[in-house]
Amino acid sequence: MSEEQNMITGIEVPIYLKYNFTAGAAPARFLAQVKKGKITGQRCPSCKNVYVPPRGSCAACGVPTTDEVDVADKATVESFTIVAIPIPNHPIQPPYIIANLVADGANISFIHLMSECVNEDVHIGQRVQAVWKPEEEWDYAMDNIKYFAPIDEPDVPVESIGTVPVSGWEG
Amino acid sequence: MTNIAIVAYQQSDSVSDAGAVNEVELLMPVLGRTFGQAGLNNAQDVDFVCSGSCDYLQGAAFAFVAGVDALGAVPPIKESHVEMDAAWALYESILKIRMGHADSALIYGFGKSSPGELPIVLSQQLDPYYLAPQWVDTISLAAMQARLMLEQGLITERDMAEVVSRSRRNALNNSHAQISGEVSPEDILAEDTYLSPLRRSDCCPVSDGASAMVIATVEKAQEWGKPYALISGIDHRIETHNMGMRDLTDSVSTRLAAEGAGAADGAIDVAELYAPFSHQEIILTRALGLGEETSVNPSGGVLAGNLLMASGLSRIGEVFNRIVSGEAGRGIAHATSGPCLQHNLITVVEKA
């Protein structure tokens, strides 16, 4: 028997570690509102930017975001991609759209799905609104919103994305 | 070798479960106090930032990046990270300053160890072919080490209990300590064994928390005008990951690191040793040749609270605190990593 035949090129070493993961105090406040069907941001006391979802700090200034701010469930497309490759165990069949969205009243984008749209027509500056699951299914999770769908409002110019107030976009 | 000045050091309380707060929320108050002590606003006011943490502790990939959210990193800063205790982040920062690439640095370490089963999580730091697949936990390995020492007559269970008793008493003066109290060696010996021959009291607790430090060149420290202490030497050595090839009753790497750092070049008033298990404090004390003249672990050491990924930096910070307060003139701090004191770092801190 040659040396090559006995060569071990890999071993299987399964790892299983169990954790009690906590989102954080600020994300927990956000998720408690999401369960009620409300999107809230948190404002940086220094640069005044509103974060959705909040993670506890303003990453730019390094200070806690303490003020809770209501934002709308209408948003603007800041950027997007069309996903064409199936991802194992992912419930959604490609092609579908992942977008960076800025909610009205917020300044920093979050990532969510877009649907009820012609993929090829999706564009930066497009106006969208959340399509929520039935209220009885709401939990502490962003997938209370099934996806965002286009609405019939004029586009937001690129330089104005991230500045739309909570009252909405007049065009 | 250019001396480096420690200008500020702060740590959080050591708690068994920080609850809902995430890493950035754990870190921000500590960094805020550290900047305040150095008279700085945020990370924009130092030339370099280096952190120590381990994503395995909280079980979240890239959790160390979340730590950066506590810094105020806009406009961009020069930043680095070690998947090690922050004592090694200090080492990297010192190299950066000595190479002339920075005049000041912020170092921080943080860890939330409570979400997982820490002794099992740490089994994954072992060699990936022979030991990690067996899930050998840290406490079992330490128990094996203690057994070896007891059987060879190098220590007694009473020696171990005395280490714990002194740690508990010293920790009464440490406001950040998780475990403190007046407990006699007899009380400890009366406890049941946990993983024989270790009792629960012989093992450090699982803790959540963070610590941070600001260092600078001596010129920069004088410019800032804050009290400072000097790091006159730092060195680290590592032993093989093959446990069978090591003498577990001794710490050769600690001795070599102490020699390299110049620990013996003066009196050692205080020594803060990172000994997660009571018998390991005895190994370290002997390897360093510490005598009656040295106050060992006046903070209570990590038996009083073990902020994994920050406790090594905290040892240095504890020595710094005692030198700046005038309690000590010169001291050494020890940091460790890996099973049974595999990797050891020695820092010598002196009065400015």
Polypeptide structure, described:
The complex is a heterodimer of chains A (171) and B (352). Chain A is mainly beta and 171 residues long. Chain A has one domain. Chain A has one helix and ten strands; from the N terminus they run H-E-E-E-E-E-E-E-E-E-E. In chain A, the strands form three sheets. A five-stranded antiparallel beta sheet of chain A has the order 8-7-6-9-10, with no helix packed on it. Chain A has a three-stranded antiparallel beta sheet with strand order 2-1-5, covered by helices on one side. Chain A has a two-stranded antiparallel sheet with strand order 3-4. In chain A, strand 3 and strand 4 form a beta hairpin. Chain A is globular, with a radius of gyration of 21 Å. The mean pLDDT of chain A is 92. With 352 residues, chain B is of the alpha/beta class. Chain B folds into three domains: 133 residues, Peroxisomal Thiolase, Chain A, domain 1 (3-Layer(aba) Sandwich), CATH 3.40.47.10; 82 residues, no CATH class; 121 residues, Thiolase/Chalcone synthase (Peroxisomal Thiolase, Chain A, domain 1, 3-Layer(aba) Sandwich), CATH 3.40.47.10. Helices cover 33% and strands 21% of the residues of chain B. Chain B is built from twelve helices and twelve strands. In chain B, the strands form two sheets. A ten-stranded mixed beta sheet of chain B has the order 3-2-4-7-1-8-12-11-9-10, sandwiched between helices. Chain B has a two-stranded antiparallel sheet with strand order 5-6. In chain B, a hairpin with a 2-residue loop joins strand 5 and strand 6. In chain B, helix 4 packs across helix 12 and helix 7 crosses helix 11. The longest helix of chain B is centred in the first third of the chain and has 16 residues. The radius of gyration of chain B is 19 Å and the shape is globular. The chains are: A mainly beta (171), B alpha/beta (352). At the A-B interface, helix 1, strand 3 and strand 4 of A face helix 1 of B.
